Amino acid sequence: MRRPTLEAVAARAGVSRATASRVVNGQTTVAPDIRDAVLRAIDELGYVPNSAARSLVTQRTDSIALVVSEPGNRVFSEDPMFSTAIRSASVELEAVNKQVVLMLVSSPKSHARVERYIAGGHVDGVMLLSMHGADPLPSALSRLRVPVVSYGRPAVPVDIPYVDNDNVGGAEAGVRHLVESGRRRIATIAGPQDMIAGQDRLAGYRNVLRDSDRRSIVAVGDFTRESGAVAMRQLLRDDPELDAVFVANDLMAVGALQSLRQAGRRVPDDVAVVGFDDIEAAKYTEPPLTTLRHPIAEQAAAMVRLLLNLFEGGPTDPVILPTELVIRESA
Amino acid sequence: MRRPTLEAVAARAGVSRATASRVVNGQTTVAPDIRDAVLRAIDELGYVPNSAARSLVTQRTDSIALVVSEPGNRVFSEDPMFSTAIRSASVELEAVNKQVVLMLVSSPKSHARVERYIAGGHVDGVMLLSMHGADPLPSALSRLRVPVVSYGRPAVPVDIPYVDNDNVGGAEAGVRHLVESGRRRIATIAGPQDMIAGQDRLAGYRNVLRDSDRRSIVAVGDFTRESGAVAMRQLLRDDPELDAVFVANDLMAVGALQSLRQAGRRVPDDVAVVGFDDIEAAKYTEPPLTTLRHPIAEQAAAMVRLLLNLFEGGPTDPVILPTELVIRESA
DNA sequence: ATCTCTTGAGAGAGCGCTCTCTTAGTCACC
DNA sequence: GGTGACTAAGAGAGCGCTCTCTCAAGAGAT
User: Rounded to an integer, what distance in angstroms lies between the CA atom of residue A328 and that of residue B278?
Assistant: First the structure.
C-alpha cells in the first residue's frame, strides 16, 4: 500500500496527469468544475506530492541549509545566541515555505560531509553561522556556485553577502560608558581572536582607550562562561587595582562576575562590568548586567532576506545592525 | 553549465551508466581497473550524485526530521536543554550518514505544514521533542505510518518508542535531600502541568511530602526564568515561613534565586533551593545551585538509536535514564 | 570438444513529477 | 462562413538515478 501518485489522482478525477498537476500547482488555466473534481480526488486519496520527483524536474528543493560552524567547546549548547538565530531564521523561512536543514560542523571530517551534501543539490542555498577565521567553508561553498549568505562578516575576504551587528561601535559605546562614569583602569576580556566578533569588539575597546589616555589591559577568552571566570582571575592578578572591565560577551561576563565575587570585589562599587549581547540571563545576574543589546532575531531575519534576494535578484549589500547600551546595575 | 551526471561519468570512463552506478554505490562486482577508471572520471568531473533522483528510485532520503514543539515563550532560545539535545541527536545521526531537518512547531498553522512535509516523503523518520499534552502531532504522525520516536514520554497514550529520564525518581531524590537536611516547610515551583516533565516532577515532590507529614505548597511556572521569579514571589506571600523550595527546572530556579535575593532571604541559610536539569548556568548562580543532573546528550543519543532500531527491526522498548543529585551550595 | 556455471558488464524500464508542445474547441470579427 | 485569436486540456518527453534482467566471456566439469 504505497502513497497515491498524481497519476492516481488524475485517474480518479477523470483528467490527465498534466491537468492534475496544474491544479496541484495552483495554475489558473483550469475550468472550475474540473478543478473541483481534482481537489476532491486529492482529498479523498490523501495525496501529497512526492518531493523527490518534484525537485528532480524543477531542480529546486525548497530547502535551505543552516550551517553552524560550532567552536566545539559547548558554546553552541550554552550560548542562546545560536538558538535565537536558528529559531528566527527558521520562522522566516517557514513563512516563504522553505525548510531548514541544520548542519553542525565540528570536525574537518564533517566539513567534507557538508560540502558533499550541499554539492549533492540537497539545498537551494546556504546560511553560514559564526565561523572562525580559518574556516574554509565560505570560500569552498562560493566556489560551488551555491547561493550563500553569512551571519556575521566572514573572516576571509570572500564575496558573500552578510549581516552583522556593529561590533566596533557597540564596544566603543560600552567602554565610553565606563570612561564617562569615571573609571580609570578599564580592562577587557576579549573574545577569541580568530572570530570577527572577537576582533571587532577588542578593536572598539582599544579605540576608546587610545582617545582617553588610559592603558589597555587585555585577557582573552573563548566566549564561554568558564573562560570568562579564568580571564577575570588573571586580570585581577595582573592589575589588582582595576576598577572596570568590558567583557566581549555576556556569557563570559557571568563567569567574570563569579570570579569577582570570589575575589571579594563588589560590583559595581569596586569593579564595574559591561557585557555584550544582552542575553536573557543578563537580567538575572547579581547584580544585573549592563550590556550591549543587538537584535539577534532581526539579524537572522535580515540574513534570510538577503538569501531570498540572492535567488530573486534583489539587493545583496551587507547589512549592519546597530547596537544599544542597556544600563542595569553592574556599571 | 550544469552539474555532471552519472551518464557523463560513464561516458568519460568508457563504461555503461549501470557500471558507474555500481562503483558509486560501492558494489564489489566491478573489475579493479574499470573501477579505477570510473573513480578517476568521478574525480575529474567533480561528480556528486543527485539526491533527488536517487531518493526517487530508492524511496529513501537519509534525512530525519527533528520536530520541536516549542512552547512559544522563548523557552527554546533560553533553555540549553534544547540545543544540547539537538546537537547530540545531530552528531549521532551524522555518524550514520543521515541528515537532520529541523522543524519548529509553534502555531497550529505550522502543525499542518509539518504534517504535509512529512507526508511528502521528505524524511525517513521523525524525532519528536518536548510536546505538550494536547499535542496532536504524535498521533497524527503515527497515523501516517512514518517511523516516529519521542524525546520524553508522550502525554497521550500512543504507541511511540520514547526515551525519558526518571523525572519522578529525580524529584523524589531532590525533595528527600531537603527533608533529610531538616527543612520543615518545603514548597515547590512546578513546571507546566500539560507537560509530562512538569507533571512527573510535581508527582515526585508530592510522593516524598506525603510520606513525611509535611504539607505541600505549590506554585506553577512554565519553565522560564521569569515564571520562576514570579512563582517565588507568590510562594513567599503564601507562606513567608517556608524554608526550602524544590524548583522543577534550573531556569526557573535562577528566577527564584533572584526573587529570594530581592526579598532579603539568604540561600541556603533561610531558604534552601534545589533545581532540576543541571544546566551549565547552575554552576554560576549565587550561590551555585544544588540540582538534579540527567544526561541530556545520552537521552538524545538513545532516541536516535531507537529510531535506527525502528528501521532495522531492533528493540524499541522505552528507555528511562537515571538522574543524579548534584549537591552544591544552595541546599 | 561440448556443456554448465560463474562472473562482470550493458540495456532499459521506471521512480513521480513538471512542462513544453500539440490539439480541440470556443468565440469574435470582418 | 471563413479566418484568426485565444483558452483549456491531453500527450509525452525527460529530470538522474537504481536495479533487474540479459548477455557475453571465460573457467571448470564431463
Answer: 27
**In the numeric block, which cell numbers belong to residue A15?**
483528467
A246 touches chain B (CB under 8 A): no
Residues listed for chain A: 331
CB within 8 Å of chain B, chain A residues 254-283: 254-255, 257-258, 261, 280-281, 283
- The one-character DSSP state at B30 is S
Average pLDDT by stretches of 10, chain B with 331 residues: 86 91 87 90 92 92 89 69 88 89 80 85 90 77 88 86 96 97 96 91 96 93 94 96 96 96 95 95 93 95 95 91 96 89
Say if A102 is an interface residue toward chain B (CB within 8 Å): yes
**Which 33-52 residues of chain A approach strand D with CB closer than 7 Å?**
34
| Inter-helix orientation angle B32-45/B6-13, to 10° | 130
| Residue B313 CB neighbours (<10 A) | 7
**Bridge partner residues of A149 (DSSP):** A127
Distance A16 CA to C24 C1' (A): 15
Burial A105-126 (b: 16+ CB within 10 A, else e): bbeeebbebbbebbbebbbbbb
CA distance B282 to chain A (A): 11
CB contact under 8 A, B56 and A56: yes
Looking at chain A, which runs of residues are DSSP E strands? 63-69, 99-105, 125-129, 148-151, 162-165, 186-190, 217-220, 244-247, 272-274, 291-293, 319-321, 324-326
Residues in chain A with CB shorter than 8 Å from the CB of B70 are 87
